[in-house]
Hints:
Helix content: 40-55%
Keywords: Coiled coil
Distance between the termini: 74 Å
Number of strands: 8
Number of domains: 3
Structural class: alpha+beta
Number of helices: 5
Strand content: 15-25%
Coiled coil: 46-76
Strand order of the largest sheet: 2-3-1-4
CATH superfamily of the largest domain: L1 transposable element, RRM domain
Order of helices and strands: HHEHEEHEHEEEE
Radius of gyration: 34 Å
CATH architecture of the largest domain: 2-Layer Sandwich
Shape: rod-shaped
Largest sheet: 4 strands, antiparallel
Amino acid sequence: MPTTREQREELRLLIKDIFTEMFSDEEFLSSLVKRASEKLGLQKIINSTSQKVTELEKENLSLKRKIDELEQHSRKSNLRINGIDEVRGEDLNKTVLSVLRDKMQIDVKNEDISLCHRIGKQENQKRPIILKLASLRLRQQILANRRFLRKTTIFISEDLTTERYKLLKICRSTFGGKSVWVSNGTIRVKVTGGDGGPEECVGVQRHYTCKGDRR
């Protein structure tokens, strides 16, 4: 039912009287001020907590990156070998030495190998081999001579951390295998366009970024 002008005026005056009475009540005003202060204080706490959480997330990411860097540094003398058949009771050092000497034409001695073992579950009959070498020079020579393995099932690569392997997979899927390579533990991507150098990819846990110049 539509209201008349007089009714609307009466309603306006009634509301005005109610508010006038409410705001003249000291107890009501004190309660209102208290609630407003509590709300403002709570908002400050929320803002402060949110800022602290953001700072902790940054610190956590920075710490994970440092741990990843240290772990990768500890693998600087390592190589990963895939594709060598696994035989029960095998002499892995002898097998690897044979590949390096006979297939890759590298003069290597038994003492040049610091550690040699397979990783992964037993049911996989061609588990990867981790090879730790006594010198970085020999490691680089092996990487340089990988071309001799092109017609074989054997593949040798740098030993990356778990997180860098995840990033490597993402980069290869995104940019294509021919545009992605690894150099001393760093994953690099060649992107067409621009005048810069190769783009460097860095990733830790679930945080992946690609940064650098493009070419």
